[in-house]
Amino acid sequence: MTLLVVGSVALDSLETPFGQKEDVLGGSATYFSTSASFFVPARVVAVVGEDFPEAHLSFLKGRGIDLEGLTRQPGRTFRWKGRYGYELNEATTLDTQLNVFQTFSPDLPAAYRDTPYVFLGNIHPELQSRVLDQVRSPKLVAADTMNFWIKGSREALLKTLERVNLLFVNDAEARQLAGEHNVVKAARAILRMGPERVVIKRGEYGALLFDKEHVFACPAFPLAEVFDPTGAGDTFAGGFMGMLATSAVGVDSSMLRRAMVMGSVMASFTVEKFSLERLREVTRPEIQARFAEFRTLTHFDDLGPLER
């Protein structure tokens, strides 16, 4: 199965307690497609400027990522600059330059329109809907969003949510979208907005998967060192969707649980180095080994009868 992502390809400048990096490869579509490419062929729809390095394109192509939908336009590439403190749980944005991304209007190549799995990255919900107008009968549509769209484009976002099967949000975004402080109540409210499932990302505390009848909790992998959490959420979504797209029998509860764990596995690699440095070198045996470690971390036997 193939997987389509529509989102940003960017150049990031990062400051963490462990160092600084200037104009490194970033963007939601970049992290997502790189993560997903370990499992299935990925297709990207995005825009970059004249200054975007060819070496970055070569890396993505080397991962087998289809870049027919990536356009290069006159001007500068979308840039983001952020700083993390020692807790590394939230970035302070120092500078955002939308540049060519400001006028991004996704136009899918003809070959992309029958892609069975679709991920709508964190872009304006009207653009997300425009993508859905162009695809034909996808098996599953997932979307991401953020507080900016929840607050400023709520009506457009609600219309998009009626058309997606699965939503990825963090816990703060879930509370804001639902108007509920409790995460469980927030998830239930989001399910009533249209998605069949919602994944609530909780950073170092893992992630929760909700559908109308079940909840599955997946921890984050315990790491001794975390260098850069940029892109971890998009990497999680790429691993999750990439795993789902490998299924020959469709999406069932067992596959969804494996997808949750694989999302956490891939995100755990991303944060170990700056930008996509760790994803550039990680191997499939390493991924399989860490997936197995997750199983060990979360396994326990039945309690049996309690006796006084």
TrEMBL record:
PROSITE patterns in the cross-refs: PFKB_KINASES_2
Keywords of this entry: Kinase, Transferase
Entry GO CC: cytosol
Pfam hit, one: PfkB
InterPro entries named among the record's database cross-references: Carboh/pur_kinase_PfkB_CS, PfkB_dom, Ribokinase-like
Carbohydrate kinase PfkB domain sequence ranges: 37-275
GO terms, molecular function: kinase activity
Name of the protein in its database record: PfkB family kinase
